[in-house]
Design a protein that fits this description.
elongated; 5 helices; 5 strands; single chain
């Protein structure tokens, strides 16, 4: 084998290993978590418990229907929050951001948050940035859950 062939083989092996690592990380990221099996209202209570255990105060789940796009009300120190929870099997779009943005004002809260067991679409991330809505995806929820024993 020539020197050039050895270099090409080495490059091929390094690139192959990188691709394998990326695929394994993506697969691990999408493994089902217990929250993925929950119904909507159960997910709201699960999120409320996560928030309580992570230092949020006055955590209250709103009524199921007619909640004006807000599932949880809470505070931390002087800051008040309105939270929309979405337990879906696909990425979360702009509608959830719009709902919590409107609900935040209805409940006279300072900050709107969308929590989900999934990830957000690019348009949802762009709108949230523009409206100053905080997005907590499955990684953030997993970190909150890992920080406490429930």
């Amino acid at each position: 084998m020539t020197k050039d062939q050895m270099i090409y083989l080495l490059i091929f092996l390094v690139v192959s290993m990188c691709v394998i690592i990326v695929l394994l990380v993506r697969k691990r990221r999408l493994l089902p978590l217990p929250m993925d099996e929950m119904e909507g209202h159960d997910f709201e209570y699960y999120c409320a418990d996560l928030l309580r255990y992570n230092g949020y105060e006055d955590v209250e789940v709103t009524k199921g229907s007619g909640d004006f796009g807000v599932d949880i009300l809470m505070s931390k120190g002087e800051v008040t929050y309105a939270v929309q929870c979405k337990c879906y099997d696909k990425p979360i779009g702009v509608k959830a951001v719009q709902e919590v943005y409107a609900g935040k004002d209805y409940y006279e809260r300072m900050i709107g948050v969308v929590m989900t067991n999934q990830y957000f679409t690019q348009p949802a991330r762009e709108l949230a940035s523009r409206l100053r809505v905080i997005l907590w995806d499955r990684d953030r929820l997993k970190n909150l859950a890992d920080s406490v024993e429930m």
